[in-house]
Amino acid sequence: MEANTFSRWLDDVSSADSGAVGGKSANLGELATLDVPVLPGFTTTATAYEYYIEQTGIQEAIDSELAGLDVEDVADLQQRGERIRSLISDAEMPAELASAMVDRYDALAAQLEIDDPEVAVRSSATAEDLPDASFAGQQETFLNVAGTTELLESLKYCFASLFTDRAIVYRETNDFDHLDVKLACTVQKMGRADLASSGVLFTLDPDTGFENVVVIEAAYGFGEPVVQGVVDPDRYVVFKPTNGIVEKELGGKTQRMVRRNGGTKLESVPDEDQDEFALSDDRIRELATYATRIEDHFDTPQDIEWLVDGDLDELFVVQARPETVHGAAEGNVIRTYSMTESADEILDGIAIGNAVASGAVRVLQDHREMDRVEDGDILVTEMTDPDWVPVMKKASAIVTDRGGKTSHAAIVSRELGVPAIVRTGNATATLSNGDPVTVDCSTDIGRVYESELEYEVREEVVDDLPETDTEVKLILGDPARAFALANLPVDGVGLAREEFIVTSHVGYHPLELLERGEEERFVDALQTGIAKIGAAFYPDDVLFRLSDFKTDEYRNLEGGWKYEPEEDNPMIGWRGASRYYDEAFREAFRLECEALRRVREDVGLDNVTVMVPFCRTPEEGERVLELMAEYGLPPEEMDVYVMAELPSNIVLADRFSELFDGFSIGSNDLTQLTLGVDRNSEQLAPLFDEADDSVTRSISSLIETAHSHDRPVGICGDAPSTIPEYVEFLLEEDIDSISVSPDVAIETLLTVAEFEDRDS
Ligand code: PEP
Ligand code: MG
């Protein structure tokens, strides 16, 4: 008899052989055809099963047990099932079949160079038209099978498992002929993940559906506790187009599942191993390569189980199946809110965002009281600063006593897409903890109403968004939202504020970490944050802005008081470019540059370019550019923009044009400094007007000068997100790109398209 009649090597079969070797073996073979490593092993064939049934002469007895079966009669079904399984497992393996199995096993042992290797024996049914899910778990799996005697026994039990009670009922009720289904067995070396690691992966981000990444979960030992959520695994995110590692998150990994007495047990992981990643960077990238290859081959996202075999010190894919459950990414939807119920108004102020939200009031004096805030509460506070971002993320709406349209609270709320009312004057005194309220920002004036009122949300899905000449980009600093926003049809990101990443992902002053010898912590967290935003919008440009904390904000970072002077006017103090070349800060600037260099070179995200904020003079610009070159970011290798946010940037636009590749207008600071109005001043708020002639003329002049020097101009201040006519003005002035907060991106795109249509 031909060697392949009863069994075949797994890497000798493919999807086309599922009739001959069953779905499971065929699928593993298919993976092997892609050069994806599968644990070495073989499969028995359907012919082997037929031969077994035929030669043992038990077919008739099986038939008579099945004749007249009534699946409703559970007791009878159980007895008949039991008898059929015994008929199969008690029979003697025909000699020719047995010797073929032994030969194959011995050949596997020789190949592995292990005596009596332990194998797993699994069922691989040939009934292709049975949905896999309903068949899963119906047949047996035998683990840690060693030696030929045990192997032959397991094969027989595997054959018998074609007649579990559930399988019988399934075939009866779905009108499948019992004889049409055959059982092959997949026999593979036991994956020794207990000596190494294992886990799962998805070929997209399961939370947002973002498709350009592979998300891997990894822990030590066998994978079961990871799947069950008992062990907190590491998490790695790999960017498919460059195979660069975007994020590595260390999991708890306090326990691992290992073998004991033929079974398994959970044991503690030594502390030093808990603090290490379960996979090396090379392994992570290798795994991501296989994942992408499998996904490309099957042309659909995959959910994959994998392990590292500690015996062989090699990575293996154990199973790949289509991924079905994932969150929907935010698409092209315009939401319009309107109130449908009324109640007494308690307070009003400046409305930020166009939404409505309701919930229980939570008044906080200090961001450290964050634990008191439940998801969905209405956060009420005097004012926010970067330390408040984690609390703000939990809130469904934000109400502050102070602050203006470009205050921290306003900027962050806009970016988070939660409604906020700023400058209410006395919200912290007027609103009481626990009170149900509604925050209405559906009109220009933000209003807080008593009780949770009904409101309507209209969603308009905009298909076929037009391409525009003037680019529309996002203002986005929160890496956590990047993947969810990746599907917005924008031309990248025009402002990614470093401050967002540092406050939410580092928390420490960079000089403090340098003093402690923990600079990697800073570089690593910053690199991850930038890379996530860069990956989300690749290959569109992401303009990352170097640090622009003010001294009062830096002081609030852990250890910050040691390094930051107390200034009377932090808004016009030691901020932006002036810090970078200062001896007292230069080392921290080096870390920023290093994070960016790694994103571009190590992760391969060369769509991330850079912007220098608050650059008072061209001489400052020169010094910063020189330092960047020294710290691994030579200006000739990438675009470096300067913010146009000081009157000096406008007046000397010709000279800044010689140094920088483009401008991005910071209308917030430009208005503050042109009109001499403190952005945060409550009294002067009515005078803070980005549409004032002095500001708009400055913008017009800048665009003209910059264009005459072939330099593009964008805008990343808040004016176009908050003043609809502003977009129109900028288009008339021939601006090159407009950055807006995510909630108004689609509307802005439509406005731009309409303008361009009219204009052409
Ligand atoms: C601006 O000044 O307009 C700007 C975008 O920068 P920031 O608001 O961060 O100062
Ligand atoms: Mg600014």
Automatic annotation (TrEMBL):
The keyword ATP-binding applies. Keywords: ATP-binding, Kinase, Magnesium, Metal-binding, Nucleotide-binding, Plasmid, Pyruvate, Transferase. GO terms for molecular function: ATP binding; metal ion binding; pyruvate, water dikinase activity. Its cofactor is Mg(2+). It comes from the Archaea. The keyword Zinc-finger does not apply. It holds the Pfam family PEP-utilizers. Residues 468-746 form the PEP-utilising enzyme C-terminal domain. Residues 374-443 form the PEP-utilising enzyme mobile domain. Pathway: Carbohydrate biosynthesis; gluconeogenesis. It catalyses: pyruvate + ATP + H2O = phosphoenolpyruvate + AMP + phosphate + 2 H(+). Residues 20-335 form the Pyruvate phosphate dikinase AMP/ATP-binding domain. Its EC number is 2.7.9.2. One of its GO terms (biological process) is gluconeogenesis. Belongs to the PEP-utilizing enzyme family. Catalyzes the phosphorylation of pyruvate to phosphoenolpyruvate. This is Phosphoenolpyruvate synthase. It comes from Natrialba magadii (strain ATCC 43099 / DSM 3394 / CCM 3739 / CIP 104546 / IAM 13178 / JCM 8861 / NBRC 102185 / NCIMB 2190 / MS3) (Natronobacterium magadii).
